[in-house]
């Protein structure tokens, strides 16, 4: 009697399941053969398993859309077969897919169910597989018994004499111990991970994961050069696989950027991050968002505030795009699932599904609003001078481009440019720290004197640009005179005993509709005239020198 082809292929599918992270091409080829045989022979259990393995490979390569489609098909096949093995493998795919699409509560409950189902089957390798995939979810939330669970998994890998699974488990233990702050114990575990990875073939992915973890351990210990070495080795190993796991690539690139920043290699850090973004292309917006956030942090530490803001803005946009894409896909899959089960579902069950779908939409809207608030906060940070807290030219440029000048500033408006007299001498005599304190206090003086509707911009060095909407020449001159007197009367001795300070101001007014830059250039010219007139002066085009008060 000839056995069905699916009976021969089922053991091969089990072997491919254990190799899909190291050899995804072999796993896909085997799963494809099993799918064809299962469809031909009507073996729903084998079909569900074959589709679930293809879904795991898709997730491994960062193809969330493809994985979700395969998940729906595998669940449909599993529902037609009463087979616990198929249920476990499909449930593991469901747990990881829920995790990567942000359904964390569902991911946790499904991960725990996977472990219970695998234990009920009793197969040792299946119990390891269920825990391995489930721990991707459970480990992220670090439950109190995580250490015990990892030790139990390690015992199962020893019992099965599975060197590759043992290597990955030692890596997971290293991550756990590193989070606890026990760097030496984490190093001991990662060395064991390398040792057992060397005992199996293929092992490129296991080595790449261990190097990535070791990079994080060295970073936390302050060993930036060692961290960089491990991060680069991880990326090199992953790139050799042809279809590198983008999640591990993201973690390794993050470590590389942080290590290069600590080594003072800003340009190389930015280059590494941008190369990773180009490699990812349009895949995994959230992973690209993480890399951009790390780049933004690096740029911010280096004082590159505008570049940092741009990176954060791109990160927030990617997060929103990812949420929208996943939400759209989940909605379509859920509708397809509901349509398929409508014939055998009670109306109350269908209503509950719709309520869950509405709740998911509400969560997405909340997340979107949070991102919008964050984006606004980031924009405000990027549009303010890092030292004084007043606005910078980036803010002014946006204000004047989003609306016509006449609408924003009025048909009549004034622009003044204030320069602190002899400021360079303060830096030369007392140092830049004192100079910075003087600039901060000068900005506070301007905030106190100017109206809330006025715009105060630090335009560079000791120079401030004052924009007064709907203000004629007489009112602008009076305001600038108040500013001049306020600067002169400020208690500068608080910064340096005996210090006095004055300011020169040039002010120009648009008496009819005019371009902002034209008025600003006039004010700049009047500022030079104020300097030539002896400083501590307000100079305008109306009556030349409005006020000169010398000590």
Structure description:
This protein is of the alpha+beta class and 551 residues long. Among the domains are: 1-141, Tetratricopeptide repeat domain (Serine Threonine Protein Phosphatase 5, Tetratricopeptide repeat, Alpha Horseshoe); 393-548, Alpha-Beta Plaits (2-Layer Sandwich). The chain has helices spanning 5-19, 24-41, 44-60, 64-79, 84-100, 104-121, 124-141, 146-160, 163-180, 183-197, 204-220, 224-239, 246-262, 266-280, 285-301, 305-341, 347-382, 393-402, 405-409, 423-430, 432-449, 473-489, 516-532, and strands at residues 413-420, 455-460, 463-468, 503-510, 537-540, 545-548. It has a six-stranded mixed beta sheet, with helices on both faces. Strand 5 and strand 6 (545-548) form a beta hairpin. The protein is elongated and about 100 Å long. Mean pLDDT is 83; it is low at 544-551.
Q: Could you state the order of secondary-structure elements as H and E? A: HHHHHHHHHHHHHHHHHHHEHHEEHEHEE
The CATH superfamily name of the domain at 393-548 is Reverse transcriptase/Diguanylate cyclase domain
Report the portion of residues in β strands: 5-15%
What name does CATH use for the topology of the domain at 393-548?
Alpha-Beta Plaits
Helix content: over 70%
Largest sheet: 6 strands, mixed
Question: Can you identify the CATH class of the domain at 393-548?
Answer: Alpha Beta
Uncertain stretches? 544-551
Output the structural class.
alpha+beta
> What is the mean predicted local confidence, pLDDT?
83
Characterize the overall form.
elongated
CATH 2nd-level architecture of the domain at 393-548: 2-Layer Sandwich
What's the alpha carbon Rg, rounded to whole Å? 32 Å
**CA-CA gap between termini:** 115 Å
Lateral arrangement of strands in the main beta sheet:
2-3-1-4-5-6
How many runs of DSSP E, i.e. beta strands?
6
How many helices? 23
């Amino acid at each position: 009697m000839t056995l069905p082809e699916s009976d021969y292929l089922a053991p091969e599918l089990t072997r491919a399941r254990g190799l899909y992270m190291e050899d995804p091409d072999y796993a896909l080829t085997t799963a494809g053969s099993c799918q064809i045989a299962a469809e031909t022979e009507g073996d729903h259990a084998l079909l569900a398993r074959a589709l679930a393995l293809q879904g795991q490979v898709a997730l491994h390569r960062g193809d969330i859309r493809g994985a979700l489609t395969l998940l729906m098909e595998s669940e449909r096949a599993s529902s037609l077969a009463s087979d616990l093995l198929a249920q476990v493998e499909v449930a593991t795919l469901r747990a990881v897919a829920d995790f990567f699409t942000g359904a964390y509560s569902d991911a946790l409950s499904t991960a725990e169910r996977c472990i219970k189902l695998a234990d009920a089957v009793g197969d040792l390798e299946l119990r390891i597989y269920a825990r391995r995939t489930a721990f991707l979810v459970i480990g992220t939330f670090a439950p109190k018994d995580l250490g015990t669970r990892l030790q139990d998994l390690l015992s199962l890998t020893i019992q099965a004499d599975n060197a590759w699974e043992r290597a990955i488990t030692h890596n997971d233990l290293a991550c756990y111990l590193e989070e606890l702050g026990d760097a030496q114990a984490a190093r001991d575990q990662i060395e064991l991970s390398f040792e057992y990875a060397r005992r199996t073939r293929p092992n490129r992915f296991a080595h790449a994961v261990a190097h990535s973890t070791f990079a994080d351990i060295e970073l936390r210990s302050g060993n930036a050069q060692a961290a960089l070495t491990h991060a680069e080795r991880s990326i090199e190993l992953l790139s050799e696989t042809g279809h590198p796991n983008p999640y591990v690539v993201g973690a390794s690139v993050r470590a590389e950027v942080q290590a290069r920043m600590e080594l003072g290699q800003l340009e190389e850090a930015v280059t590494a991050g941008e190369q990773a973004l180009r490699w990812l292309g349009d895949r995994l917006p959230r992973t690209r968002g993480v890399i951009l956030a790390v780049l933004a942090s690096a740029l911010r530490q280096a004082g590159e505030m505008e570049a940092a803001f741009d990176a954060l803005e791109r990160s927030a946009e990617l997060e929103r795009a990812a949420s929208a894409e996943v939400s759209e896909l989940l909605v379509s899959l859920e509708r397809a699932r509901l349509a398929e089960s409508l014939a055998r579902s009670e109306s109350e069950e269908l209503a509950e599904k719709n309520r869950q779908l509405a709740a998911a939409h509400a969560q997405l809207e909340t997340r979107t609003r949070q991102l919008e608030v964050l984006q606004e906060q980031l924009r405000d940070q990027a549009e303010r001078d890092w030292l004084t807290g007043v606005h910078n030219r980036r803010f002014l440029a946006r204000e004047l481009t989003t609306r016509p000048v006449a609408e924003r500033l009025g048909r009549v408006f004034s622009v003044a440019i204030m320069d602190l007299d002899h400021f360079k001498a303060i830096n030369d005599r007392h140092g830049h720290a004192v100079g910075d304190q003087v600039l901060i206090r000068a900005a506070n003086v301007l905030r106190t004197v100017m109206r809330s509707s006025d715009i105060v911009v630090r335009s560079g060095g000791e120079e401030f640009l004052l924009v007064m909407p709907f203000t004629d020449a007489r009112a602008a001159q009076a305001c600038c005179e108040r500013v001049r007197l306020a600067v002169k009367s400020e208690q500068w001795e608080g910064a340096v005993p005996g210090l006095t300070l004055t300011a020169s101001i040039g002010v120009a007014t648009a008496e009819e509709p005019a371009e902002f830059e034209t008025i600003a250039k006039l004010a700049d010219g009047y500022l030079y005239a104020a300097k030539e007139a002896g400083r501590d002066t307000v100079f305008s085009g109306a009556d030349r020198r409005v006020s000169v008060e010398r000590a």
